[in-house]
Amino acid sequence: MTAAQSLNLVPFVSVHHMMQIILETGVERFLGELSAYIEEDFRRWEAFDKTPRVASHSREGVIELMPTSDGRHYGFKYVNGHPKNTREGRQTVTAFGVLADVSNGYPLLISEMTLLTALRTAATSALAARYLAPEGADCMALVGNGAQAEFQALAFRETLGIRKLRLYDIDPGATRKCLRNLAGLGFEMTACSSAEEAVEGAHIITTATADKQFATILTDNMVGAGTHINAVGGDCPGKTELHRDILLRADIFVEYPPQTRIEGEIQQLAPDHPVEELWRVITGQAAGRRDRQQVTLFDSVGFATEDFSALRYVRDRIRETGHFIELDLLADPDEPRDLFGMLLRFPGSSLLAEKERGLAS
């Protein structure tokens, strides 16, 4: 990208480019740097436009738009969530995003965000855990070993030093996949036969299941004093993972309450049930973990500012790596008011030929 870049061209990061960026950067370094960008934007939370995501729900899943702006840049993500997709050989979640210049409305970046969403979700989880997990935590239970699991494991190692993983999924094949993918990367891993077995001895419990329904992945008796719960899977109305009793004894931390009360675990609670906003903890305006006995819950549903941070990070990375192409996306006539003239002047334009015939007659 250069100052002389034509106005019609917009940088585009494809899936292939994103994989090049991730691998060239290193997955854990990418997660750590991305977490820093997310934290930076949480620290200026009040600068952002904030709204619950715009969702179109169906029996099969959900399609959402997630917009935000800090007054200088505008970003949005298109994302779906269709749990049945895996049965058809498709991803449960796919996404792409746009970052634009508020001063003129022109896009600055278009990017794939299927991989990027997995990374930013894990980076946000680990960021929250830095403020909420018990000191010295080194063991995490991963309940739900699908597409998010490996990213969570690597993010928690990069940020908190987690090296022991206890894995469980209702589908043993998912656990085998996770074990295979993380083999040789320095983790001590145990495959468990139940969620109850997985949480034994874990300081942190991450739930990341995909079923689009009210579910009880964890019950109150499974959560010991001092545990931090990273609840990732509940992310739309009618979809939860935790028994209500856990919520009633935990200190609950959320991204944006108006959205989380619709989509998160706390949809099970009264609309005025007290929760704390993560940005207030990060900025020192509210307490995170206070003692070793406290049960903390990060009710993570994902929020637009995190995607904004991720797009900012990728835009900065492609300046260094060059892994992108330029799309001829925006009409850029010689005279801004003469859009029709572009059609007339296009080589071989049938309109121009018709016009010339009309003038000749």
TrEMBL record:
Source organism superkingdom: Bacteria
Cross-referenced NCBIfam families: PRK07589.1 (NF005762)
Family as reported in the entry's similarity comment: Belongs to the ornithine cyclodeaminase/mu-crystallin family.
Designated name of the protein: Ornithine cyclodeaminase
Species assigned in the record: Chelativorans intermedius
